[in-house]
# Entry
Amino acid sequence: MDFKGLDAEEIVKKLDKLRPNSDYLTKAVLQYNVETHEIFTNTTKYRDKIVETGEGTTTIPINRIGFAIQQMIVDKIVAFGFGKPVSYIPTDATVWPLVQSVLDQNKSVSLTRNIARQIYGATKAAEIWYLTPEADRLRVKQLLPTEGDVFYPIFENGDMTAFVREILVKDENDKDVEYREIYTAEEKIILKKETVWVEEAIEKNVIGKIPVVYGSQKKTEWDIVQPLIERLEELASGHAEINDYHVAPKIKTKGEITGFAKKGEKGAIFEMEKDAEMDYMTWNNNTDSYKLEFENLWNIIFKLTQTPDISFDKLKSMGAISGVAAQYYFMDIHLKVEMKREIWDDYLTRRINIIKAFLANVLSTKDAKKLEELEVDIIYNPYMINDMKEKISTYSDATGGQQIMSVATAMRNIGIDDPEEEIKRIREENEYAAETENSNTFEI
# Structure
């Protein structure tokens, strides 16, 4: 996008016309955070109780119960997709350590999980890469909608031509000051709102491409089941109200009661006229219909969002499952992870390309040609229960019952740091045991 010849006011007006509608994102953030669910905030839909007392009319708060189901759905897809870090296969192993070093310095494993959580829960996220003031290290700034960050890309013919970040900063008088950061392939423009918008600074873009990685999806992960979640919260809150109403025993009477026991009196006696009756009221069908609807809604939410129920109670009811059975159980979430590659192939590739550009143009110019030619394949590693016993049995069958690993390798796999030394000790102990047995046998 070309801003040449435009002053700060004209740039802001141009950008404001391109600013996307944020109503859905705002609603998504409210749904993601359980404390801002409608069951707590919408007092018109979920009214408190108005009751008449001896002192007049009063309002009694109703039970309001919320469930963090939205966060659970997001956390599950993040854990299955990126619980195990992605693997990179570079075409040139000589310069890849330069890129890997930058990824490690910026904790890219956690970075990817945080970004994924934002995209799945707030529909978008971004990261801005920049050089430290000494220009000797590369750093990244995450932009997170759930933390209040406001930003948006500008696309032309499918390519990002500008990226805008809106910032609110407190000045020395504790007043909010608005800023706009605008990133293009040529420069970074910083605008400040005084009485009017003014140009604060312009910085040259040393890598020749926008140093921003942006990812998005149209809907949240729970969008299709949001009405069901609201119904669950309504059910739980209403059921709590019923429990509160019935928690104290209630007595129904027939005929005339002439005398009552005093409060706290043991062996209480009630005086009644002939043919009068007194019984406790019982609530016969108190949970069946509620339990059925609640369980149905819960199961539908898991199925429609392709989210496995891996709660302790669920897994306990399944008993010990084999590796193959686990693969079938997690197939739905693995298919979902695979579909998300439409987002992550582009996202992670762009991250690598931006790091390569900074290295080639600033931090490691002597390797510029190799870095420009470097290509990287991304391998995803969805989480799966590791049934080692079944794996060994399968591999053993495939080799006709032959040994598939050495004793030293097996020891290393279970965490023994020096298997050779451990094998030496085992042999010494076996030799000593054999000598002792022979001594006992021959009564030496």
Notes: Residues 341-363 form the longest helix (23 residues). The chain has a mean pLDDT of 85.
